[in-house]
């Protein structure tokens, strides 16, 4: 039994040390290399002022006609390559 506990403790200790080594903070050079290798980011993360959360955006009760006009006016200002 002691042998089993010792084996498990050593195995877990080795696993934790390997995991800690892998998740150490990246250097600035490595972070920039990763960032530059990513494709161009696209999309919008827009939430209208009348919505409390993303689900509320699609609720029938939360929509207002005035807000819809404001949103369409704001989206007209965003260049197409950003969406």
Write up this protein.
The protein has 83 residues and is an all-alpha fold. The protein folds into two domains: 36 residues; 40 residues, no CATH class. Helices cover 53% and strands 0% of the residues. The protein is built from three helices and no strands. The model has no long low-confidence stretch (mean pLDDT 75).
Q: How would you briefly describe this protein structure?
A:
This protein has 83 residues and is mainly α. It has helices spanning 2-22, 28-37, 65-77.
Descriptive terms for the model:
single chain, 83 residues, mainly alpha, 53% helix, 0% strand
Beginning-to-end CA distance, first to last residue:
61 Å
Estimate the global geometry from the Cα principal axes: elongated
Number of individual domains = 2
Average the pLDDT over all residues and give the rounded result. 75
Sheet/helix structural class: mainly alpha
